[in-house]
Amino acid sequence: MKTYENLNAEFTLPQINGPLIEFKNVCKSYGNNKVLDGISFQVKKGENLVILGRSGSGKSVTVKCLVGLTKIDEGEIYIGGKAITSLNEEELNKVRKKIGFLFQSGALYDSMTVRQNLAFTLQHHNKNLSEETIYQAITEALSNVGLEEAIDKMPSELSGGMRKRIGLARALIIKPEIMIYDEPTGGLDTITAKEIIELIRSIKQKFNTTSIIITHDLLCAKYTSDRVIVLKDGKVNMEGTYQSIESNMDSWIKSFFEK
What we know:
This protein is of the alpha/beta class. It is built from nine helices and ten strands.
């Protein structure tokens, strides 16, 4: 019987000297609409990469391609040095087990309590867990986001910020090596958004996660990123630290920072 300490221990992403995640000349079209037009970038282990871009620039499609939910037309994507397009479904599912998602809406099941939401995710990824292991995993995940007292609440009883935190706990419960945040501060008031930003920072420090953060929130980009890439028309338009991009004199880039 598995314990929570060795959860997912049967598979770990390979430890490599190069980037943990790499896109090489990736293209993806839907009909005549070329959403990704040869994008290339890397994410080092333990790094937070923020992806900025206007609606329709290819941010969400990039993430879908990363986890194999959308098949690319050209190019290659590597995770842990392995080309994911060459993996069969069983091998790809092993990789997916090491990736946690925080969706913009939190994406909780409304008919389930917080406890049931987290247990469902955990059991989906790991079969034959004891009740004790499941409870330990749930309480630890809730502790990581500061919401132990919400364990038996329904999603309808939670504020938007609390739902986002529970969504984060659900992502963390599988002990991911890679985290993907989709608009983590979207729809939140300024104070709650700052709390989520601090959580993202603390998770990186505590678990050494490698993260891709999709956001329109410049405060989130500034304080969570080690590096930023800006997508425009399906291409990487600019790459660098937040400070270097903010100070860039290009008129299109400057438009991101105008009030």
